[in-house]
Design brief:
The protein is an alpha+beta fold. Helix content is 29%, strand content 41%. A 6-stranded antiparallel beta sheet has the order 8-7-6-5-2-11, with helices on both faces. β9 and β10 form a beta hairpin.
Length: 266
């Protein structure tokens, strides 16, 4: 082989090796960078989950321990924290209703409230949300939702059941966004027992119905939770178009409503 041919082969080999290295570095950079971004975005939502768990603990201090107020810090990183707004088509994003059918009494006893969900919406992971709604906490990814923290409901067949409805309110349009730390101030605005009443005792001779109207994803999560809680009934719950309905019997019932005001600030 001539010296010139060897020199050409070495140059071609160098070019091929250099091209392979460059292409490999480029692919690894693009794929690795995207992977790091996805990991970072997921971690941000995970951090929001932990912050909402603290929020739920603080709100529980209000309705269990009679604490007047609590404050929770939630770190935002390319995210929006807001109270679900009312719209013309939907006067409230959630409707929670408890109806007690008492044969022999003049009327059924109904408790109806419209709690407003507190929502953490990631801007970088646009289909991921963390939601505090009616005392429960949810992680929502696209069309699916998981209940991370159960609401303060105690449902029993042969003893007393206690339904504590956390009725969240706040200023319309309350919102904090960006890369700041949001402060959620929770304050009790009153509590009441809606069942039993002055004319009806805690004993239940008929059926109790819990109906929750919310988003499709959260309705599915509510149904899974309530089906497990009302385990003594067969097919106690049904869900359709974002509304879950559950009917069951219990010996005694107490329905308590605690109104909590959320104030958001940066």
């Amino acid at each position: 082989m001539a010296m010139d041919d060897r020199g050409v082969n070495e140059v071609i080999g160098f070019v091929l090796v250099f091209s392979l290295i460059t292409a490999t570095v480029g692919v690894v950079s693009v794929v690795g960078f995207n992977g790091l971004q996805e990991t970072r975005n997921a971690e941000r939502v995970d951090n929001a989950e932990r912050a909402f768990d603290v929020l739920a603990d603080n709100v529980a201090d209000i309705y269990y321990e009679d604490a007047p107020t609590r404050a929770t810090e939630i770190k935002l990183a390319d995210a929006q924290l807001f109270l679900a707004p009312k719209t013309a088509s939907s006067p409230s994003p959630t409707k929670f209703r408890v109806t007690v059918d008492n044969p022999g009494s003049a009327n059924d006893v109904e408790t109806k409230r419209y709690p407003r969900p507190l929502i953490y919406q990631s801007k970088t992971a646009s289909d991921s949300r963390v939601v505090y709604d009616a005392g429960a906490t949810f992680r929502v990814d696209g069309d699916s939702a998981v209940m991370l923290r159960e609401p303060p409901l105690v449902l029993r067949e042969n003893s007393q059941s206690i339904i504590t409805l956390v009725n969240v309110g706040g200023s319309p349009g309350s919102s904090v966004g960006g890369t700041t730390t949001a402060l959620v101030r929770s304050e009790e605005r009153g509590s009441e027992t809606t069942y039993p009443t002055n004319t009806v005792g805690p004993s239940v001779s008929g059926e109790v119905t819990i109906a929750i109207q919310t988003t499709d994803a959260r309705a599915e999560a509510w149904e899974r939770y309530l089906e497990e809680e009302i385990s003594w009934e067969s097919d106690a719950c049904s869900v359709s178009s974002g509304t879950v309905d559950c009917t069951f019997e219990t010996d005694k019932l107490y329905v308590n409503v605690v109104s909590i005001e959320f104030e958001l600030s940066a």
